[in-house]
Specification:
The complex is a heterodimer of chains A (about 325) and B (about 200). Chain A is an alpha/beta fold. Helix content of chain A is about 20%, strand content about 30%. Chain A folds into three domains: about 5-100, Beta Barrel (Elongation Factor Tu (Ef-tu), domain 3); about 115-225, Rossmann fold; about 235-320, Ubiquitin-like (UB roll). In chain A, strands 4-3-6-1-2-5 form a six-stranded antiparallel beta sheet, with helices on one face. In chain A, strands 9-8-7-10-11 form a five-stranded parallel beta sheet, sandwiched between helices. Classes of the chains: A alpha/beta (about 325), B alpha/beta (about 200).
Chain lengths: ~325, ~200
């Protein structure tokens, strides 16, 4: 139930690909072939930092059929980070051993689409790396619109332009360039799909622009992984086993449960997939819903919580676990 | 519309206007035209102006005039049969950009034909707004000889092509725009339950 089994890997290569972005190449610890994946997939990487355990999702790049290694890109979020990306940047080097999950795809391209419009902002480029690889080999019609702060901070600009030519459009914020989304979406053939990955304001803007131009929601796709925001410690009561567990300030409910050996359901750990949806039996605090999955009525009902992302401000919450 | 336990059985939530779409195509029959009138009453005049209606059913000149007046200012084209209406729909979809919203309302064979044709233009079936009106008659494919039987109103029904007596299932194919008909007396030939007029 709780995700796939873990695989031990070794870091074979680390490259600084942009000002705050490193690319890591991971190989199986025994050099066994890794699983094939599909364009848009991600893995979660398990990190042990002191007595803390974190599992962060990272999109797989490279060719989906290359089973010799996986490549991920990690943005160092610095002070905004909960510690995962900082750990990857500061504590992981060639030779470091890590645990990863099997690939999972919550952001696949729609194979029947006539055309694919990919909208990326900053580190949001990562899922499109494997997606473009796949679409290119299928000879599908696609174009990328990629917003970067500057060429120093944007990863893979040159690589993408040399590989995919005029299908790559780069917009530099330091030169005042904006993705002309209204023009792009306003002039597409029927059966076109849009995919967006980047910071939340960019995703919201893209989804809203598409909606206002009359794009059906079925043609619009987005992915955003967030880290669970920290808060104050609180108590989780488990209705079925009667256990009480304290969630520390920097932990998610899911991480606290795992620390205490509770096998709770999860997949993406980024509030996107819905797998960890858990019933709320009782709650004497205010639930901070940090996921992208529950609908507004579900949030208001207070009967459900996504334990990978959401927490309560203070007090205790009783879960149907 | 009876609720089915069969997941493939389409459901038709009812028409609601997408006010953001830059153009609309509505395919309907005579019964569905009433649903279009109600749809227009829930939107502004500009919505109707952006709309082309393809009405696929044989109508008298007087009926056409009534419908035209009723659904003004949308532009209306009339076709005597569903296949002729669908041929025109395909022509329009060939040239259409994103920002188009497709609607279908009327009998199930009409809605199913629209969904089937739209799939060729990569229009997701869930993005088509649908409302069932009029007869419950079904289009059925005989799973044995693969022939199609149009306008089926009874269960069981005799296959018009191979003569088998078929149980009309709720098992639906969007690709074929048809429900599946399976031989009902395969084990004991002739042991057939009474025919019911389920889909009038």
């Amino acid at each position: 139930m709780s995700g796939s089994r873990l695989r031990r890997v070794r870091v074979a290569e680390v490259e600084q690909v942009a000002a705050r972005i490193k690319r890591f190449r991971l190989v199986d610890i025994d050099n066994a072939p890794l699983s094939e994946f599909s364009g848009g997939s991600h893995i979660s990487v398990v990190m042990h930092s002191g007595d803390r355990m974190m599992r962060n999702p990272y999109s797989l790049m490279g060719s989906p059929s290359d089973t010799s290694s996986y490549q991920i890109s990690v943005l160092n979020c610095g002070a905004d980070s909960r510690g995962g990306s900082k750990f990857m940047h500061e504590n992981v080097a060639v030779g470091t051993e890590l645990e990863i999950s099997e690939p999972l795809n919550l952001f696949p391209p729609v194979k029947l689409a006539k055309k694919h419009i990919l909208i990326a902002g900053g580190i949001g480029i990562t899922p499109f790396m494997s997606m473009m690889n796949e679409l290119d080999s299928l000879k599908s019609n696609f174009e990328l619109h990629y917003g970067v702060r500057s060429l120093d901070e944007g990863a893979y600009c040159k690589y993408l332009q040399s590989r995919y030519g005029s299908r790559i459009n780069i917009y530099r914020q330091d030169q005042g360039q904006m993705i002309p989304l209204e023009t792009i979406l306003g002039n597409q053939r029927l059966g076109t799909h849009m995919y967006v990955c980047g910071p939340k304001p960019m995703i919201d803007w893209s989804l809203q622009t598409a909606e206002l131009l009359g794009w059906p929601s079925e043609n619009v796709h987005s992915e955003q992984f967030s880290a669970p925001p920290p808060g104050k410690p609180f108590t989780v009561k488990l209705a079925k086993s009667g256990r009480e567990i304290t969630v520390k300030g920097h932990q998610s409910i899911l991480e606290a449960l795992e620390e205490h050996g509770v096998d709770a359901p999860f997949l993406c750990r980024g509030g996107a997939c819905g797998q960890c949806e858990t019933g709320v039996v009782a709650c004497d605090g205010y639930i901070e819903h940090n996921d992208h999955f529950l609908t507004e009525p579900e949030r208001v009902s207070g009967k459900k919580i996504m334990i990978c992302m959401s927490r309560i401000q203070t007090g205790s919450i009783t879960l149907d676990l | 519309m009876t609720i089915s336990t069969n997941k493939s059985r389409p459901i038709y939530p009812g028409l609601s206007p997408d006010l953001n779409a830059r153009s609309n195509i509505i395919v309907c029959d005579k019964g569905g035209a009433a649903a279009v009138t109600e749809l227009f009453s829930r939107a502004d005049t500009a919505f109707a102006k952006r709309t082309t209606i393809l009405l696929a059913e044989t109508l008298s000149d007087a009926e056409k005039q009534t419908v035209k007046t009723e659904l003004s200012p949308a532009s209306i084209e009339f076709f005597p049969t569903i296949p002729e209406g669908i041929a025109r729909l395909r022509e329009m979809l060939e040239a259409a950009p994103m920002g188009l919203r497709l609607y279908a309302t009327g009998t199930e064979p009409l809605i199913g034909s629209v969904v089937q044709a739209a799939a060729d233009y990569a229009i997701d079936h869930l993005s088509i707004r649908t409302e069932h009106r009029g007869s419950l008659m079904r289009r059925v494919q005989c799973v044995h000889c693969k022939g199609f039987i149009e306008n089926v109103t009874t269960n069981p029904v005799t296959c018009a092509h191979c003569g088998l007596t078929l149980l009309v299932r709720d098992h639906y194919s969007r690709r074929l725009a048809a429900f599946q008909g399976v031989c009902i007396d395969a084990e004991v030939p002739g042991d057939v339950p009474p025919t019911e007029a389920l889909y009038q």
